[in-house]
Amino acid sequence: MDFSKKGKDADTNPDAHNLPLIENISKEFSETWSSRLNSLRAECEQKIGKSISTKKILKRVISKISEIYTAFFNCVKSSFPSFPQNMMPLHKLSLEIKNIANSLE
Prior knowledge:
By secondary structure, the protein is an all-alpha fold.
């Protein structure tokens, strides 16, 4: 993903001062969400064990990640219509989340 492309609307948007923050959040999320989830999974399994509770916790976390990222993506899209092309696509995140959720069963 190329986060240097701000899009045509960045120069004329009154929210343009928020663009560096949006870029940082987008970049960090796309680079770290999977590894952070794996760290949480390992910690849950270490402290709780591989139980139904661990699976429930992880499925709720996965669901919240999807929900929050979708809201963030849509918010960015409404303020900076061309910027989401630089973000992780929702369908890619959904597919990866589905694969992780299936691996829990």
